[in-house]
Amino acid sequence: MVLRYYAAYDFMVLFSLSSNMSKLAAFDQLLLQYQSLNYHQNPAIAQRLHEVQAWMKERIAQTHEEFFARPENQLMAQYFLNRLYGGPDFDAMAQQIERLLKYAHKAESLLPENAIKTGTKSVSLAVLATQLDEQVAMQLLEDYPLETALTDDIMRQTLVKLDQGEARYEQLHLLDELGQTLDKYMRSTMMFAAFKMCKGIAHKYQFDQMYEFIQEGFAAMKPMKSAAVFIKSFTEKEREIIDKVHAGHPDPFRA
């Protein structure tokens, strides 16, 4: 249990950084966490990880299909699945973060502090999701041939064996915190105006991907009354899934 829990604890600590450090210090720590993942050096783990991530995204989309389909929720649902959840596309984001850190003094002067804080939390969740899913991928490689297709029951058994329950609950807790942060910092008209003013300079210094990552968060929130309410509805359903997995439910992924 302790070994499974360390990832979520590490990221909870990261969320508290920056008050006495550079605004981008937490990004440096996140990059180190991401670069230390095993799949970067192991093609078999990488293949399994991407299969696990694809299964997870499909499962999430199916579980929350009606909720995600509401017009006001569609953009945030896509932001969840394509940005906060990580996946192969996050490799490009990691390269952008590495470049961003090389020009930290410039980035800190360009980006509003609250946008950096919110971006840090979003990236933290993407990295944490990848870290937890890599554990699933490595367990699958121990138990099944690489060519074995993933099924709901294989995933159920693997999640039970890994005993990731506490880490997954903590992941959802951090996601709830992100919802509160989005409502607190990202709904300000002044904040949005200041952020828009950075676009040309961000492009000039090739911080486009990081800018777009945060900009998509703004866009996803626009049709919604509250990001925190959306995320709370999502995490409540996800907690039910975790409960059923670890209670031995034979088909825990069905809503």
Automatic annotation (TrEMBL):
One Pfam family in the UniProt entry: DUF8198
NCBIfam families: FFLEE_fam (NF047641)
Domain DUF8198: 38-252
Species of origin: Acinetobacter venetianus (strain ATCC 31012 / DSM 23050 / BCRC 14357 / CCUG 45561 / CIP 110063 / KCTC 2702 / LMG 19082 / RAG-1)
UniProt-listed InterPro entries: DUF8198, FFLEE_fam
Domain of life: Bacteria
The protein's name: DUF8198 domain-containing protein
